[in-house]
Amino acid sequence: MATAASTTSAAVLASRLLRRSPRLLRRLSVSRAPPAALASSSGRPLPPLARHSLGHRARMGHTAAAAAAASEPALGLTKPNAIEPPQVTFSAKDVEFSGWKGDILAVAVTEKDLSKDADSKFENAVLKKLDGQLGGLLLEAAAEEDFTGKTGQSVVLRLAGQGFKRVGLIGLGQNAPSTAAASRGLGESVASVAKAAQASTAAIVLASPSGIQEEFKLTAAAAIASGTVLGLYEDSRYKSESKKVHLKQVDLIGLGSGAEVDQKLKYANDLSSGVIFGRELVNSPANVLTPAVLAEEASKIASTYSDVFTATILDVEKCKELKMGSYLGVAAASANPPHFIHLCYKPTDGNVNRKLAIVGKGLTFDSGGYNIKTGPGCSIELMKFDMGGSAAVFGAAKALGQIKPPGVEVHFIVAACENMISGTGMRPGDIVTASNGKTIEVNNTDAEGRLTLADALVYACNQGVEKIIDLATLTGACVIALGPSIAGVFTPSDELAKEVTAASEVSGEKFWRLPLEESYWESMKSGVADMVNTGGRQGGSITAALFLKQFVDEKVQWMHIDMAGPVWNDKKRAATGFGVSTLVEWVLKNSS
């Protein structure tokens, strides 16, 4: 990822160090074997690369040596623990909440719900009934704890003589949830109080169920369920101790019941497993998640859902045959070889009405290369998340392998590699040639993601697809422009922009469309090649998107998503799984 802290002076310093210290150069050039595969989401260690069944298509370009290397111990002998992700069963019920039996009854309340009548009793019918059942305890607790129903507030009471052992009040703010994001937040709050109480069963009821519009109830139910699972999940695979998840059953009361809502709740669980998988990939350190191991993780999706997935993994020699000089230039410095990953989803009945491609940036570590990341704000210690685009791609693939949408073929494509420094590496000023024949003068080795995406986009167009979305932690400029929670969207297609906007309204993820200002391309012109790989500081996200546009067929609808901000939660110091939910929704909207 290109950052503001990547400077020419840093490149000069690195170059001088290498010239002055041949020993350092030799050490950087020594080959390190890729580490063992990650523990899977199911808790079982993944097998070596050569052992995977890849569905119906043979693996291309792999050698026995590469397969053996994938089973070698990680640098530092780090091995992720096998942690079982949350397994929660959701049920939608139309029952009387006061008669529910279980560990904790969670009541979601707005600030208005806490209004009192002339007798200082709750006006809200649900709260009035529940408070009467508890002998005024609810009203008393709300007053003593200064609970006003604001978002993020909660009060939990231990009870005796009731069917439910605890009751919790969960604040919603001024209004009942009207968006997927707000509904997911409610689920996360319920997960928090359930974890604190070590509850194994819970029920969720809204004090004012009429506050949710009828047509939104299905989406709300799914978002609450998804938020609950994601709120329970903690990635402790790399910690010496892990916390046990107790919650196993959640009942949603008052949001409808029947086959349609049950299907939505299953969808929420499938989607959550994809988001968790995406988080795990980004959270994994670069000494564990090498390009070979990322390929192994992708291959496991194909073997697990072999009824709808096939996998093709291309090694260096095969990429050379396809003339992927731009991608291979980035990978040249690393002791861990690149792996070009292609998963293909086809519905079980074989009927395809639309062909899509989702391309993700897959830099499992980005040092910046000779334009090495230095100084405050360079975030080199976080550059394991530079494969966040590929995590979104494979998280979506895992979810779709379970959902199995009809009528749509989807290609999931990642050019995985590392951007390192060595005597074999790409230098500032080098010219590389992409697989569509266009030449690129590399004026900054830290603008490497776009070089890998160039060949991946050409490859995607060659699959005969109608629409392509690429996702990448591409520029620090986009974080400066939109902050840590919003991804930038670039596309010449208004139709595709509308599709993704509609998908994001269901997913609750935030996107903002930015202009593809063609006049800015002037700063990307080279005197000796077709283009340079980065322009000036101004409009950096726009010029990066314009660069990618050079590698997309004009007949293909294309969108670039710069997710450098929302890929990571600084407060939690962990990955967000951003992009998975919107991609899944987008594919479903294109299915028949």
Automatic annotation (TrEMBL):
Pfam family, one: Peptidase_M17
Catalysed transformations (reactions): Release of an N-terminal amino acid, Xaa-|-Yaa-, in which Xaa is preferably Leu, but may be other amino acids including Pro although not Arg or Lys, and Yaa may be Pro. Amino acid amides and methyl esters are also readily hydrolyzed, but rates on arylamides are exceedingly low; Release of N-terminal proline from a peptide
Top-level taxon of origin: Eukaryota
The Cytosol aminopeptidase domain, residue ranges: 444-451
Stored PROSITE patterns: CYTOSOL_AP (PS00631)
Keyword ATP-binding attached: no
Cofactor(s) recorded in Swiss-Prot or TrEMBL: Mn(2+)
Keyword DNA-binding: no
Transmembrane stretches, start-end: none
Keywords recorded for this protein, A-Z: Aminopeptidase, Hydrolase, Manganese, Metal-binding, Protease
Cellular component GO terms held in the UniProt record: cytoplasm
InterPro entries: Leucine_aapep/pepB (IPR011356), Macro_dom-like (IPR043472), Peptidase_M17_C (IPR000819), Peptidase_M17_leu_NH2_pept (IPR023042), Peptidase_M17_N (IPR008283)
A Gene Ontology molecular function term of the record: metalloaminopeptidase activity
One record GO biological process: proteolysis
Subunit structure: Homohexamer (dimer of homotrimers).
HAMAP family, alphabetized: Cytosol_peptidase_M17 (MF_00181)
Function: Presumably involved in the processing and regular turnover of intracellular proteins. Catalyzes the removal of unsubstituted N-terminal amino acids from various peptides.
Protein family according to the UniProt entry: Belongs to the peptidase M17 family.
Stated name of the protein: Cytosol aminopeptidase domain-containing protein
Organism per entry: Miscanthus lutarioriparius
